[in-house]
Amino acid sequence: MTERPEQLSLPFDDFVVVPHAKRIKRNRRVFCNRNLRLNGIAWVGFDMDYTLAVYDQAEMDNLSIRATIAKLISRGYPAFIANVPYPTEFPVRGLVIDKRFGHILKMDRYKQVHKAYHGLRELSKDEIRELYQSKKVLPATARYHWIDTLYALSEASCYAGLVDALENRRVPIDYARVFADIRESIDEAHRDGTILDTILSDLPRYVRRDDDLAPTLHKFRSAGKKLFLLTNSRWSYTDAMMNFLIGGAMSEYPTWRNFFDVVIVAATKPAFFQERRPLLERESDTLRPAAFPLERGRIYEGGNLQDLEQALAVGGDEVLYIGDHIYGDILRSKKESTWRTVMIMQELETEIFASESCTEDFAALQELEIARDQLEDELRFFQTQFRDVSRKSDQASADDKPRSSDFSKARLIVKQSLERVRGRLREVNAEADLLERRIDARFHPYWGSLLKEANETSLFGSQVDAYADLYTSRVSNFLAYSPLQFFRSPRDRMPHELGA
After folding, report:
1. Which residue from 440, 449, 432, 453 is spatially nearest to 367, judged by alpha carbons?
2. Phi and psi dihedrals of 163, rounded to 5?
3. Euclidean distance between CA atoms 240 and 459, whole angstroms
4. Residue 345 and residue 473: Cα distance in Å, rounded?
5. Domains along the sequence of the chain with CATH
């Protein structure tokens, strides 16, 4: 016989309730997908761009678009495209470019398309159904391109603006070629210094310096953790950017390099996690094969996951890597190693503010969903009644007129009840659609929530959920937490566990 467990009790009256004002604000919290104990982490690694360095997105998009359009015109595109509006507020991360038709799509976690635009024209539900819902969409194929970083948002703005402008002027357009030209132009603008040199010439314009960043790194170090920097940026750019971010921020650290035990630049992620590229050491302008063990204060380039793990001399699950690129930083490191991961999403603060502003609408939508379930139960009941009454009426003898007349009256009453329920159900569905559109508009005027789509997690949100152990809006949010914090994920529930 199984013994019953003892009833547990806690002296709840002895606990002090912390006033709400003293709690960490939601927009500055670290959120947990999978339990993670920071006291089990020996090394904390950081990406730089859009992770330690938080860019002003509007300024960056405008700079990238100007540089890209200039390159396109030099490639032979008509000069009028320089005066076309390219709405930087149009794209969000997680969109998919359909290069065959010139469409931009948003999918849920099941890769079903719910929203789509051709240029800046929203596709109708019928267009979406015909093109994407009646057949399987394979976003990993060459036909599609995923906009998965903040850096890539300008590509989507350029594409939407160009498709509109060229078609409005009846210029023949190859949708795949136009997108390839945009990608090549923006890459060229980065390689030749058009973009990076402009940023370095006016860092305060393009980068938001976070005064809490240096104390956050110091707090990790004070708890005995070692830090490494792993960035795709070249050394000259990295040195200037990091000096702007944390150089001279704290007297304990003579230079920014003193915050880190290992610095690796030009890492070429995601190849860093997949290939065995050699790790090199930089000495002024000279590169030579790196010698192990790696030394603090030296600058390394390239490299690969295996060599870095050997140099860190700890198990993979003792490494926490913080980055912004869902594929290059988070997914690949998670798939190729046992590193723990943190996803940085600048947009998260806006998402949280939008969600909090929709509290009443979410509650109303929940009530409508309950009403819909009840109406659908009524609908099934009356449909069964209608079938039964109709069958009995058909079976009634023609000579049994009173009985047949009773069945006819009963069928009419049930039919009226059916129409009443169906009408009410249409009203509930229409009201729910209006609420959902209003909620979407509070998150983003074109695409709604970054992390959700309809009742599902968005494709982008599903990857954050699957590959990021933690996620937050900025690195300095860790300053509010103990470096030994135990982050606990919320209890996950399946549909059958929700409600009655």
Report:
1. 432
2. -60, -45
3. 35
4. 5
5. 24-47+209-347 (3.40.50.1000), 55-194 (no CATH), 353-449 (1.10.287)
User: β-strand 144-147 against 95-98: which pairing, if any?
Assistant: antiparallel
Q: How far apart are CA 228 and CA 51, in angstroms?
A: 13
Is 325:149 a contact under the CB 8 Å cutoff? yes
**Residue carrying structure tokens 């795709």:** 232
Tokens of 427: 């009203």
Cis peptide upstream of residue 289 (ω within 30 degrees of 0): no
CA 240 vs. chain centroid, Å, equals 29
CA distance linking residue 312 with residue 235, whole number of Å: 21
User: Using an 8 Å Cβ cutoff, are 474 and 19 in contact?
Assistant: no
| CA–CA gap between residue 124 and residue 116 (Å, rounded) | 8
From first to last of the 500 residues of the chain, give the pLDDT tens digit. Answer: 555 556 666 666 666 666 665 789 999 999 999 999 999 999 999 999 999 999 999 999 999 999 999 999 999 999 999 999 999 999 999 999 999 999 999 999 999 999 999 999 999 999 999 999 988 889 999 999 999 999 999 999 999 999 999 999 999 999 999 999 999 999 999 999 999 999 999 999 999 999 999 999 999 999 999 999 999 999 999 999 999 999 999 999 999 999 999 999 999 999 999 999 999 999 888 899 999 999 999 999 999 999 999 999 998 899 999 999 988 888 888 888 999 999 999 999 999 999 999 999 999 999 999 999 999 999 999 898 888 887 777 676 555 656 667 777 888 888 899 999 999 999 999 999 999 999 999 999 999 999 999 889 999 999 999 999 999 999 999 999 999 999 999 988 888 887 65
- Supply 266's token pair: 């030009």
CB 108 within 8 A of CB 459: yes
